[in-house]
């Protein structure tokens, strides 16, 4: 059962991601609902990096269309509801099934500005047990160049657990 007061997370970013990964895994263990898993991860991620993470959430692959993302659980200001594969950073990451780091979103062709305060972004794919793309995790920052390889490794590890644990 998640508690309101949690142990402080390490200062070091890689260690913070490792602690967070363990915490998310403990919270979602045994919970079969995808939405419950995503919502818990979005909450814990946003709280772990409050200065850098301005928008933290999931865009789910539309099960009927398979070529469009629809917004899922998130923390932050109002997000766009739907993003076609290939459009914006989320759509590009979904199409490529790979993480994309964008240091300056204003320089990214086709970037979708849900909130004009976002200046950099990282989007990481989430795969199901069969290796099929299920969603992408999108994190936006008001800072430029807010994300690096440590964020990529940390977020990819957490995303790898979301639909494969248990
Ligand atoms: N900026 C994203 C769209 C989603 S929001 O920022 C919440 C993109 O270009 O994919």
Q: If you had to describe this structure to a student in words, what would you say it looks like?
A:
This protein is of the alpha+beta class. The protein has one domain (13-161): 2-Layer Sandwich (Beta-Lactamase). It has helices spanning 13-28, 34-48, 88-96, 149-162; strands at 55-61, 68-75, 82-84, 100-102, 120-127, 133-141. It has a 6-stranded antiparallel β-sheet with strand order 3-2-1-6-5-4, sandwiched between helices. A hairpin with a 5-residue loop joins strand 5 and strand 6 (133-141). The protein is globular. It starts with 12 loop residues before the first helix and ends with a helix. The structure holds methionine sulfoxide (SME). Methionine sulfoxide binds at residues 55, 79-80, 83, 88-90, 111-112, 114, 118, 121, 138, 140.
Short précis:
The protein has 166 residues and is an alpha+beta fold. It is 33% helix and 23% strand. Strand 1 (55-61) and strand 2 form a beta hairpin.
């Amino acid at each position: 059962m998640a508690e309101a007061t949690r142990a402080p997370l390490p200062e070091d970013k890689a260690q913070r991601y490792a602690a967070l990964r363990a915490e998310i895994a403990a919270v979602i263990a045994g919970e079969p609902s995808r939405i419950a898993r995503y919502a818990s991860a979005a909450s814990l991620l946003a709280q772990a990096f409050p200065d850098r993470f301005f928008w933290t959430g999931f865009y789910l692959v539309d099960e009927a269309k398979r070529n469009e993302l629809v917004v899922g659980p998130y923390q932050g200001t109002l997000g766009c509801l739907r993003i076609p594969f290939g459009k914006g950073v989320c759509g590009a990451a979904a199409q490529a099934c790979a993480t994309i780091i964008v240091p300056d979103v204003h320089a990214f062709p086709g970037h979708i500005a849900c909130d004009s305060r976002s200046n950099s972004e990282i989007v990481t794919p989430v795969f199901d047990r069969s290796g099929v793309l299920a969603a992408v995790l999108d994190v936006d920052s008001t800072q430029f160049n807010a994300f690096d390889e440590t964020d990529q490794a940390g977020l990819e590890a957490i995303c790898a657990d979301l639909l494969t644990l248990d």
